[in-house]
Amino acid sequence: MEHVMELLSERKSALLSLLGVQSVFVLCFAICSFVVADTANMGFNVVLTAILNVGFCGGTYYVIRKSQTPLGVGFLIGASTGLTILSLMTAVYWGQLGECETTKTNIDQYSCDNKSGYRAVSAFASLLFITQFAFTILVVVWKDNVIGDTGLYEDISGQPDTSGAPYGGGSFDPPPSKPSDAPFDSGKAVSADL
User: Fold this and answer.
1) Could you tell me the pLDDT band of residue 147, with boundaries at 50, 70 and 90?
2) What is the SS3 string spanning 156-193?
3) Cβ atoms within 10 Å of 23's Cβ, excluding its own
4) Helices marked H in the chain — which ranges?
């Protein structure tokens, strides 16, 4: 129990641990998706869902460990929400398909060859839904801890610069404040007159 409380106290490590569990489920889901890839109408979709989940795990690891920008964390929240919904839809669809009936006649665009594979896809999609839902909630709640300290607007002070130097430092010679005393010669042709 102490280990769980210690893990929760360090929020980024808790998110990374949950991402590790999710990555194991993604690996199992990807293997099952390759097994049922020849299913009529939905084989490609489940493989594409597995590829999206693999990409999400890699991108999430990068955002939590390296990027930590507000834009990156916002994109992470949006992508996590979208994949959570996609995992729910995948679990329901393949769970229903696991109850299909084998027919003696050939029906175009219908296949019921691998019921156990369909059920396995549904089971791992259900586990992904649960872990992604928890992950999304935790990222939303802990977003201030996930966002790094670089590039925040709080670092910009609202106080005016009174040093007189441009951009807070450096040297700059301003142009003369009064026009030169040289007379203007209007007799010469300039490029605009040609």
Assistant:
1) confident
2) CCCCCCCCCCHHHCCCCCCCCCCCCCCCCCCCCCCHHH
3) 18
4) 2-9, 11-35, 43-62, 70-97, 115-141, 143-146
Query: How far apart are alpha carbons 104 and 135 in whole angstroms?
Result: 45
What pLDDT does 113 receive?
78
Which residue do the tokens 């099952």 mark? 32
Q: Is 194 helix (H, G, I), strand (E, B) or coil?
A: coil
Q: Which of 60, 63, 80 is nearest to 148 (CA)?
A: 63
What's at 165, amino acid-wise? A
Q: Alpha-carbon distance 21 to 130, whole Å?
A: 11
Q: Which of 70, 60, 75, 67 is nearest to 21 (CA)?
A: 60
- In a 3-state reduction of DSSP, which class is residue 150? coil
Polymer length in residues for the chain: 194
